[in-house]
């Protein structure tokens, strides 16, 4: 993938320069990714007297959670766990053992946001046995499944579950199963040189205060990792769909499905399974933010056009939440994607007779033949339920999206072999509106259509 054009690069650099100066950030690094490759890197400020490079480490905080979530999903795909399992089945002996793994991944388990004890992000961590012993009735703040309530504690439990199943610590499992296969060898649980020092910036003066850094112990799965712009660019490509052998495309897509969304007129943010979700400027983004004392980070990916963006900075607060989406908007303005060239597709010619208009009662739908034997069914004008279907070996189709996700579409033929109708989970689609020759549930009035 070629780098962005000079004018695009200048506009992207200007945006991060505005951010670094206006938000008073000691240093700032950012990357834009397209089609699995970084196409732009920029940095401002200084780390040990020099501009940050693509190899400079920053702490990424809660982006760690998404990496732990990938290992959890691998355990699910291996059949070792089920997402509906209560966490107590795998980490017994806690007072919150009834909450499900899926609820922990999506922050809908109702657990307290922070663990008992001191402010965990600024103090040395406790062993997991000590943490589990401290959990009591007050750990549950809401009914499981009732609402979204972000919980660092929940990911401590998930990290311990990973450790018990893998027979090693959570960080080694993440390294062996996620980071190494993706080539992210500069993502580590503790810093390595060269790395940025975390600072707090005085609110009323241009001076810095170094922030503490430590091993978070049992809470480490919630925010321990350090990474580089280059490694996090690979992570953005992963989230956009370049999964390598780490996860199947279907499992990653499942992680990106909204499990909970903000309560508004139209959802703009939400949470999947270990991934934050957002809808901005026509894009559907998946990723995560990170915040630890002295550091802020954010990474987002749009699988719709294989685009990603990220930033890393060594300040406790101040960076704009709009920085990443502003960078995407600049890319769209200066170098909008060209539509993919249309070209003919190889299809099953025996299915061509099925294409064209079908009717659910009086409502008109168009059936299109996609590549191979796959189909799409969508309303012709007006509103209705649209879905794509993939062919199965038994001659039926299974819904991939929309209302009919997971539902079966069958082709029903008459005794002479001619097509009678489509049966979509009991809904009958006929070639003419309420075709009296088809098996329309409830029958068709003998008098037919009338004025």
UniProtKB/TrEMBL annotation:
Beta-lactamase-related domain sequence ranges: 15-327
Entry-linked Pfam families: Beta-lactamase, DUF7586
SUPFAM superfamilies recorded: beta-lactamase/transpeptidase-like (SSF56601)
Residue ranges of every copy of the DUF7586 domain listed in the record: 347-431
InterPro entries: AmpC-like, Beta-lactam-related, Beta-lactam/transpept-like, DUF7586
Protein name listed in UniProt: CubicO group peptidase (Beta-lactamase class C family)
Species this protein is from: Streptosporangium sandarakinum
